[in-house]
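Running this now, will post back.
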Amino acid sequence: MLKTHGEINQEQGLYQLSEFAGKGLVLFHHYGSVMRGVIRRYLETSVTQRGYRLVTLPHLMKDQLWVTSGHRTFFTDNMFFASAGEESETGLVVKPMNCPGHILVFKEEAKRSPSLPKRYFGFATVYRHEKIQNTHGLMRLRGFTQDDGHIFCTMEQLQQEVTEIVDTFLETLGRFGFQKDEDFRIKLATRPAKSLGDDDAWSEALTALRTVLEAKKLRYDVEEGAGAFYGPKIDFEIRDAKERWWQCSTVQVDFFLPRRFELADGIVMVHRAVLGSFERFLALYIEKVQGFYPLWLSPIQVLIIPVRPEHVPATQRLFNELQSQGIRAEIDARKKSLAKRIKDAESQPAYFIAVVGDQEMGPGTLTIHRRGHDAKETMSLEELVRRIGEESRGQFPLPALQAPSGSQRP
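Update: finished.
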């Protein structure tokens, strides 16, 4: 039976959900934060190469902004409100979404450069007043981070933009090992009974979405009337360890907000998120790989275990060398038996496990094995460093970035 992300977290200590902090709010520990950071760097590189501009928004924005956007009408029950100081008359809202902020950025930049399309994205934590009984692990939270993006284009440009978005979804999910139909499914949602916009615009947008899916020969299900009130959408849903489906990647066409914010005639807004919620996606990925992460994503790329106390100096030298090469390493020198430490290592988020004994005290070879595998290998430190670099680049190409520092275990 497959473990859930909560059960795996009990072994690996990636995050915590604390009632003292508040239900539906997650505190990521070091290992979980390292994984988030690596994924974030990949996504940032991927989308900037596709012409997106990185923007950063505040966590609080004035209530009037949300009145203009329509969220105060359609989303009030899911919003958190704050009021302090000079804003007390109008109030502040803890943002539940990023779209109004991206519109403000677009309007300002359009004054200098009116050409279309324009693509914006950012990693932003949003907060929604989810009912306590509906919160569920990392899958459904009150505070979560989105890899949120918005495109401003013409109707003539819409199909090409959606094509590139769907390509990004397929490429990214594929890099994480999610397979179409087996691990994720696609849904096309049509106009609901309560919606805005004229029939012709809805029909043209829906045709664009459908054409993209059919041109790529992607099987999809039609969900009649399940679109957003502002436009049709494509959702990618991923299956969890309990065979439940969760929405992640999404692309949504919006006729409503451009009108509310008085954008130029003919501008269509496209909402898109590659992962959706970082937290939900991470939970689904943890369950898919059952806590056995590839080298590029493992919070501990090399876990070093000294056999006896006299081997700690050699262990420290190895740790220092790995760290200097940007490799995430840790030492387990706890006062427990070697067998116990090796057994514990098999449930930790490590990739390679290296045991340092008499043979490794001086220059020479290391004895290592991959977590979850019995076969041991011997190699020099130089070979280990080269292999980690080659495997990481082969599994998941990333720009050259400083890796988080290693640390010694308590």
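The first strand starts at residue 15 and ends at 17. More later if anyone needs it.
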